[in-house]
């Protein structure tokens, strides 16, 4: 699952990033509005943890949430903010927020709320995919092939997840590299390596090679 943290306080963002990464979420961090907007398009997050007060203004987080909903963003929005009035909470939820957590907060409570939002289906994703011998539980990252559990690395799962969420779509090579391996310098080679690994672990048929790219093969 992909999370975008929008928080301008680096002293808070650092520990939150480390915490979410330990929980095996794919996380990106933005500390201002323009970065957040760019990362929404790049990451396609399942959940945005959003501060209200950003460098562009005290209500920037509210304005961003409203714009995202107008643009059709279907992921969960969790406000993380020091603004604790009832009016602020109501406004945040009315503008498209799914939950509202006031700073300072417990890290355990934050994780619990994130898990609840992802379970609730705020995203348009399905929780479980079953196609032929393949079964994927997206929230828990459990993968089975022919009813046998298979252990995947983070990047292996992210690649399989992207193909599985759109099983009829052919993904171009460059698109997969930009989404799954955005910082690679290995070019197309790294994608071929991970496709080979998934085929070794799950069976040759799990990924089909198509002209110009790949698609789920089952």
TrEMBL record:
Residues 2-118 form the Response regulatory domain. Keywords: DNA-binding, Phosphoprotein. GO terms for biological process: regulation of DNA-templated transcription. Residues 126-218 form the OmpR/PhoB-type domain. GO terms for cellular component: cytosol; protein-DNA complex. The keyword DNA-binding applies. InterPro entries: CheY-like_superfamily, OmpR/PhoB-type_DNA-bd, Sig_transdc_resp-reg_receiver, WalR-like, WH-like_DNA-bd_sf. Gene3D superfamilies: 3.40.50.2300, 6.10.250.690, Winged helix-like DNA-binding domain superfamily/Winged helix DNA-binding domain. The keyword Phosphoprotein applies. The modification 4-aspartylphosphate is found at residue 51. Pfam families: Response_reg, Trans_reg_C. Residues 126-218 bind DNA. GO terms for molecular function: phosphorelay response regulator activity; transcription cis-regulatory region binding. This is Two component transcriptional regulator, winged helix family. It comes from Meiothermus ruber (strain ATCC 35948 / DSM 1279 / VKM B-1258 / 21) (Thermus ruber).
